[in-house]
Amino acid sequence: MNARAAGKLAVLLCLLFFGNAQAGPGKTPGEWLDRMSTTMSQMSYQGTFVYIQGNDIETMRITHVAGDDGIHERLVAVSGPAREIVRDSSGVRWVLGDDLSVLEDKAFGRTFFPQLPLDQKEQADFAYRLKFGKDARIAGQEALNIKVLPHDEYRYGYSLWLEKHSGMLLQWELVDSRRQPLAKLMFTDIRLGSAVDTGELKSSSNLKKLKRVESELPTGRFGSLAAPRWQPADLPPGFRLTSHRYLGQDESGEGQFEHLVYSDGLAAVSVYVESVPDDDKFAESMDRHGTMHAYSRSEDGVMITVIGDVPAITVKKIGKAVSLASR
Fold first, then answer.
1. Please, how many CA atoms are within 13 Å of residue 101, restricted to the half-sphere of its CB?
2. Strands 101-105, 212-214: parallel, antiparallel or unpaired by DSSP?
3. 42-46, 279-283, 304-308: which range is least confident on average?
4. How crowded is the C-beta side of 48, counted as CA atoms within 13 Å?
5. How many angstroms separate the CA atoms of 217 and 232, rounded?
6. Which candidate, 75, 72, 65, 36, places its Cα nearest to that of 195?
7. Residue 298 pLDDT > 70, yes or no?
8. Residue 104: how many other CB atoms lie within 10 Å
9. Taking the CA of residue 13 as centre, how many other CA atoms within 13 Å lie in the half-sphere pointing to its CB?
10. Most Cβ neighbours (<10 Å): which of 16, 69, 96, 225?
11. Which residues 6+ apart lie within 8 Å of 104 measured at CB?
12. In the chain, alpha helices (H)
């Protein structure tokens, strides 16, 4: 074989190798996010991650096991005040701080490590632009970078680093509409699949003997078929109702509680409407806890509260638009 023929063969082999490497599942940012969502809901994983927001740094240890009987998850604070969170089919229990009280809420079942599932792709495409960034090495794993960029000021964006084979989320960075970083979470070590030590699911605290503090949120009923009694007349672009539960009046005709969730396909905002005495007046307020904002106001005997890991402008716009729906 002469040099020219050998050169052509080498080029052909390179094209075949790299072409096959780029083909198949995960060749677009959207497909990689789909893979990430599947991996984090169906794969077991375990590791230590660091969460950074401003000057605050927290180190957490997570064990997440996906089995035939659902998800079992335990999250423990490695630094700072003693905290422990256990999630399984019974709901979520928080061991809160030094007094070792336990908060329970059977209606609350979300994971505490962000999964960011794009379960409503058309909505997400309307609200965000996806593109690849620079690859990196994280927790000893090769990771590719996907940027999820917001089209407007009503939502945050993300920069995500996914393990190149499984799609496991190894690091994320939250950014505002100007692409300025707001918070960051990164694994420092990680195990996947059969390498997970399920023994770490066992709580270090005897949850049954600890003081219990019940969540004040009524369970209500999920997936209500009835139209919401209270709802926003105007929403930021791309948001729509994805969940609704309603707890009606008691035997005395007093009290009502309504919970609505609006999503743009990635970000979610909760709207709570709760009865309050007519003579109770609450001033309009805006609170912030980290990257989460909460807006509250009272109207016609109810307290309206809007909470979400979104910019302040979003919860305020939704909160001001909430009113009793016409019948």
1. 7
2. parallel
3. 279-283
4. 8
5. 21
6. 65
7. yes
8. 15
9. 6
10. 96
11. 91, 92, 93, 94, 212, 213, 214, 215
12. 3-22, 29-42, 121-127, 312-321
Structure tokens at 233: 């007349």
By CB neighbour count within 10 A (0-12 exposed, 13-18 middle, 19+ buried), where does 3 fall?
exposed
* pTM score of the predicted model: 0.75
Residue 162: predicted pLDDT: 96
> pLDDT tens, 97-124?
655 555 454 444 445 555 565 556 666 7
Structure tokens belonging to residue 276: 């309050």
Closest C-alpha among 139, 76, 126, 133 to residue 267: 126
CA distance 249 to 97: 35
In this predicted model, what pLDDT tens digit does every residue of 127-170 receive, in sequence order? 899 999 999 999 999 999 999 999 999 999 999 999 999 999 99
Q: How far apart are CA 240 and CA 261, in angstroms?
A: 8
What type of residue is 245? R
Q: Which of 130, 103, 104 is nearest to 116 (CA)?
A: 130
